């Protein structure tokens, strides 16, 4: 059974303008109303480069702490403290695509700056994490969300086409190291690299990119502006000759230290690498083209709602995968606790 809910939206503060839509009008026949962009919230949808689509920001630990201290109603697992609804609901997708039904993750090590220069071993950690995450009970919460249902749906049941969690979710790695990447790449440059990655991997049609995400990982000392202060990572999408391409900007996480997860919850100096990478992967699966997939009434995705929880239900922890043990955060499940919702490290 499909369950729908249209709850009133009450935000802490709203910056009163409409952002440009995520993709060009020519490629979004079923695009819903253009999304609001909220500036007085933690994480969520932001415009960071003029002329580019909005991005979904992963808040730093410091920003999340400040938000929870200044908004007493904000509890762990609920980013938007003044939101009246906890559930994620479906927002209609782009051309019927709102989630990744058969997700594939491609890792791109962008720039010659990676050559013999990976002090934290992040390339190997990321590759092993992605190789093991597919099919895990940790990622399985994404499978409760679907597309092909009405906007406002909060419980898919057996209806629609559900998000996937295949064992072979990791589809390949590309060391694009023949030339240097920009030292502080702008969003438009990251988007262009994602399109080049799609072409490199032979995904040259809209259909071949319909359930794919590209993780653009930058080398130590070469992260985009704002990393570690304004965000830990972000995901977005871009329209191109090869279709709509979903991608993540994944900076060199240990450069940010504790602000992006080093030693979070006692999980070790490299904890932020997979905490943040897992956050972005789960969000892209359930909201491939932000913000047209599954979000709550405050604009938070399944990762945002459970970011940087240090104790209690949904606290970040190590999980065991076939490729090793990795620190992760929990992901939001509408179905948890008999439909009350909550942050979970395992599903069902």
Describe the protein's architecture and organization.
This protein is an alpha+beta fold and 348 residues long. Helices cover 16% and strands 20% of the residues. It contains 5 helices and 17 strands. The chain has helices spanning 61-70, 122-133, 187-200, 271-286, 336-339; strands spanning 3-4, 44-46, 55-58, 89-90, 104-110, 146-147, 153-155, 161-162, 170-176, 212-218, 233-238, 245-250, 294-295, 317-321, 324-328, 331-333, 342-344. The protein has a 7-stranded mixed sheet with strand order 2-3-11-12-10-5-9, with helices on both faces. Strands 1-7 form a two-stranded antiparallel sheet. Helix 2 (122-133) crosses helix 4. The radius of gyration is 18 Å and the shape is globular. The relative contact order is 0.20. Mean pLDDT is 87; it is low at 5-40 and 77-84.
Structure at a glance:
It contains five helices and 17 strands. The longest helix is centred in the C-terminal third of the chain and has 16 residues. About 13% of the residues have low confidence.
